[in-house]
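Thread: "does anyone have the structure for this chain?"

Original post by V.I.:
We have the sequence but no experimental structure in hand. Need at least a predicted one for the grant figures.
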Amino acid sequence: MGQNLALNMNDHGFGVVVHNRTTERTTEFLAGPAAGTGIIGAGSIADLVAALDPPRRIVVMVKAGAPVDAVIASLAEHLEPGDVIIDGGNSHYEDTVRRTAEAASRGLRFVGAGISGGEEGARHGPSIMPGGSPDAWPIIRDVLQSIAARVEDGTPCCDWVGPDGAGHFVKMVHNGIEYGDIQVLAEAYHLLHAGLGMGHDEMAGLFGRWNRGRLESYLVEITADVMAAREDGEPLLEKILDAAGQKGTGRWTVEEALRLGSPATLIAEAVFARVSSSLKDERVAAAQVLGGIAPIMDDRAAVAADLEDAVYASKIVSYAQGFMLMRTASEERGWDLDLGGIAQLWREGCIIRARFLDDIRAAFAGAPRSLLVAPFFADALRAAEPGWRRTVQRAVAAGIPVPAYSSALAFYDSYRSDRLPANLIQALRDYFGAHTYERIDRPRGERFHTDWTGQGGDVASGSYDA
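Reply from O.Q.:
Generated one for you, tokens below.
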């Protein structure tokens, strides 16, 4: 991605100097992809800094964690007050908060810029989510917005997100939603192939048709490509081991959701589904003992139509939960995130780019607390609900796991319930632990305790959530 970003910047008329700690990599790049361009190489950090005019704009593209700190420390020895360091990797947002403050203490400006789109996006136009030192934005805006993807009206998919770690937090949530999107599509494949016995060409055609409608998105598009891929005349997909990897951003999203008390249930299920898939040997052995999948005997066209509803509704819930998490973090941190603007950043260039991000952007113009109650999405969910429920029912009957669809449906049902059984939870907590409870006939915030057994006493510890 670093090489492609450099080429992208050169294409847009910016002077670019590149450095890699392995000199051979720099030499190979200059003699290969960068041959004939205006890009020049630097043999050392000192040479890199010396070749740039102040205020210097330096993009760091290295592995998250200690390597980023090491590069920043090396750069800081040579930079001057006012220079800008941009971390374009998938750093944890808390590291970006720390680095922004540390850079400021040295008179430097620091930006954590989430960049999505992979190698292709980096070369031809990614989605970029910068946050950090606000006074860095006027200095880097022309570069980042020039190289970013653009929506149809020419608006760049890059804008200032917020202070300190805001940019990398938004990129983390983007990646969490990506986990959910992929799981939603994987469950569709499982139902179609294992449940209906649908062939790969037929599935490729179905995903292709979905991509011409309300599910139009990059991930649906490439799922059709994957279904159609052949090796030695056989579907390549069936030769790939069913044990999924992950690099951590989905897990970070779930951890933050737990910390903030924000329900990211579909993303959590997507993370755990990957964990479950890694138990390949155990699953093979268990299948011999516990049995496997029963075929779905319903009409194929009806199953596919209901499945499209389930995919669409589950995606709405996943995005709604992701935006709820960003809203909660924004309120805690004082970031003042523009949720509609973030949807615009994701409209093109990034992995989760999709048609309905336009609808999300429009929905947030009405400032809803959740996308689920925005008129467009409330209507969409009501329309999709019957097919969504039938899909989950069929999967349960066939023994096909659909944690994304079922957890999304459970959250939808919880969110629209004006009364949940949490009163029993509170009664039980008070019974065994004197944790106290609130009452519906008294103002919120007043706490009560019942001596359920007649052997208890007064509450001494006060109310707490444990």
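V.I.: this helps a lot. The two ends are 44 Å apart (CA to CA).
O.Q.: and Residues 213 and 355 are 9 Å apart (CA to CA).
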